[in-house]
Amino acid sequence: MDGKKILSQKLQSALDERERDNRLISPADPSTIAQMVDFGSNDTLSLATSGTLTRSFLEQLQKNPNFILGSTSTRIFEGTTQYLKDIEIYLAQFHNAESALLFNSGFDANVALWSTIPQNGDFVLYDQYVHASIHDGMRRGRAKTIMFAHNDCASFRHCLEGLRDQNPGIADGSHVVFVALESFYSMDGDETPIHELIDIAKNTLARRNFIFSVDEAHSNGLLGQNGSGFISYHRLEKEIGLRVHTFGKALGSNGAVVLAEPAIKLNLINYARSVIFSTAPSFVALAAVKAGYEILASEDGERRRRTLQDNIRYFYMTFLSHPKWAAIKKGNIIQIPSEKSWNSEIPRSPIIPLVTPPNESTELAGHMHRAKFWANPVRYPIVPKGMDRVRLSIHADNTKEQIEDVIEVIMECASWRLGQVKKARMQCDS
């Protein structure tokens, strides 16, 4: 048996094991998704699916008739075109930042940032649920890493005090604690308690030798003036040393930008492998980004943000007041993990996690698909074991009727499952 066959058998064995565990990832056929109402994609402002982004993109082409299609090289050589430089200046101003550095994806941006910027002797204190790309970057980096419980201020304080008390370089201010957070978390849909975490850091580290980094993948375009994001909404631009804004969610295109002081940008250009050894973003990719930002700053962009927030509130109000919800929640058929942390405000994130018992998310998603509503089941290892879910995303172009109808479909499936559970319990008791 040759090496190719041996490898093929090993790989197939791994896939078979994942399929037996009901965890095999098989992307849906685009023609199937096209027939359904979208409650799954990250196109939360509906810029891509509505055609709005396409029209704005074509306007960019008309404004730049002499564009070169390709970028021709890496950033450190000829790839830094004038159009790219202009967009980075524009994005820095848009987000009220000192400088901006474009990347081909949010994943590339996070890997570059966390593998390059924290130095020997530094520490990274990260939220339990930060993106996989942050984990990959930290693994390649030089700083030691410590996790604190998700959105848990007491855990954050305990970890930070431990770092200070056990490391003289942190106590005397000669080394830095980086704090890695997300604005809206990608699977639970909750938002970081940013003000509380900053206050804890200030009270714990007298030397103020900390730098907060916030990944705004799911809040970019949705909050703040002209959709400038979560940190701008809270007017914390001066408090947050690092921000990552991606363009593949509400902006409807792809790529990302790191917002930081010029010295960090220059270090990334000099040391980040994904900058040095990758072709720079092409004109087409950059034009799509500029097109999206021009929509954000327009009246249509403001209308879409307002409509999206109205739709999010309408979903929660309709869902939580549904006559079947109390029994479904009590029976542990569906849970919304962030619900217990809400105050009086409805969450502003368009991500709504419907957590099911293990191995039941596929059944709920399948029921929705048969009713022509698209949403994605998410299982381990994308989420922790025992936290399977259907991840809903609300969109600006979802109608009230669509929201009402998808809720009825969810409640119908969950009520049927609750009946099955009660029946099984009665049989056991008898």
Textual characterization of the structure:
The chain is an alpha/beta fold and 430 residues long. The protein has 2 domains: 27-44 and 305-429, Aspartate Aminotransferase, domain 1; 52-296, Aspartate Aminotransferase, domain 2 (3-Layer(aba) Sandwich). The chain is built from 17 helices and 12 strands. The strands form 3 sheets. Strands 2-8-7-6-5-3-4 form a 7-stranded mixed β-sheet. α14 packs parallel to α17 (400-429).
Summarize this, please?
This protein is α/β, with parallel strands linked by helices. It has 17 helices and 12 strands.
Stretches where pLDDT is under 50 for at least 5 consecutive residues are: none
CATH class of the largest domain: Alpha Beta
H/I helix tally: 17
Intertermini distance: 57 Å
The main sheet comes to:
7 strands, mixed
Order of H and E elements: HHEHHEHEHEHHEHEHEEHHHHHEHEEEH
Question: Percent range for helical residues?
Answer: 40-55%
Computed over alpha carbons, the radius of gyration is: 23 Å
Q: What is the architecture of the largest domain at the second tier of CATH?
A: 3-Layer(aba) Sandwich
Outline type: globular
Give the full name of the CATH homologous superfamily of the largest domain: Type I PLP-dependent aspartate aminotransferase-like (Major domain)
Largest beta sheet: strand ordering: 2-8-7-6-5-3-4
CATH topology assignment of the largest domain: Aspartate Aminotransferase, domain 2
Q: Structural class from helices and strands?
A: alpha/beta
Keywords: Pyridoxal phosphate, Transferase
GO molecular function, one term: transferase activity
Organism: Penicillium egyptiacum
Pfam family, one: Aminotran_1_2
